[in-house]
Structure formats: C-alpha cells, structure tokens
Design brief:
It contains four helices and eight strands. The protein is α/β, with parallel strands linked by helices. The protein folds into two domains: 66 residues, Tetrahydrodipicolinate-N-succinyltransferase, N-terminal domain (Tetrahydrodipicolinate-N-succinyltransferase, Chain A, domain 1), CATH 1.10.166.10; 46 residues, no CATH class.
Length: 135
C-alpha cells in the first residue's frame, strides 16, 4: 500500500478502534503492520522536520502505533535480565536477528540497550544502555 492508502486505512481503523482486537485480520491489520514496518525501517516518521525547520506530525502514523497495541496480546518476550523475560505486547527490534541482520542494520547495541520493534535506529548509531520506545 502507498502511504496515502495506509493513511486512509489507519484513519478508518481509528474511527472503529473499539472493534480492533488481536483477532482483527484483513486490510486493517495489514495497514497497521505495514505502517509499523515503515516506522521500523525509517521510511516513515511520526514527526518529520520540513525544509524550513518546521515540524510536520503524521498523526495517522501515531494512530497506527496506538492501534498496534490492540492487535497483539501480552506475551512473554525473551531477553530480560538474568535470563528472564519481559511481559509485553511489543516485540524487541532484535527478536530473531542473526549476524546478517546486525551487519545490514549498521548500528551497535551494547548490553542493556532495549529497542522495541518499529523504532528506527540509523546506521552508525551506538546504543549505550538505554530504552528506545516504538514509533
């Protein structure tokens, strides 16, 4: 879907947000997941700096982040302290990553750097102990 199509689908989903659950399928789920993937890759930003220095807020992308919480149930996430886990709805950005994904991403994450899926991290960044939220 194009950004215009994603925006239209997200705006429609937002109006019906009380009906969105982990069982939601079809265009609504696809639009939410595609928007979160675009945020994750950096091809879309919730807030974008314009040429003149002003900021443009993609309100629909922010709505997609909030809708993303509705399409997933809480589940145990690996990677917690001392071999434990987390209890969350949002996957780690690094879940399932191997050497190839780390090399392609081009950034470094030292121990205790937590990044949630859909947060964009630019190549060359060094993540020290930190928490980077989604969106």
């Amino acid at each position: 879907m194009s950004n215009a199509q994603l925006e239209a689908a997200i705006e429609a989903a937002w109006e019906a947000r009380d009906t969105i659950t982990p069982a939601t399928t079809g265009e609504t789920r696809e639009a939410i997941e595609d928007t979160l993937a675009a945020l994750d890759s950096g091809s879309l930003r919730v807030a974008e700096r314009q040429a003149g220095g002003d900021w443009h807020l993609n309100q629909w992308a922010k709505k997609a982040v909030l809708l993303g919480f509705r399409i997933k149930d809480m589940e145990q996430q690996a990677g917690g302290p001392q071999g434990g886990g987390w209890w969350d709805k949002v996957d780690s950005k690094f879940a399932g990553w191997g050497d190839n994904q780390w090399k392609a991403a081009g950034f470094r994450a030292v121990p205790n750097a937590v990044v949630r899926k859909s947060a964009y991290i630019a190549p060359g960044v060094v993540l020290m102990p930190s928490f980077v939220n989604l969106g």
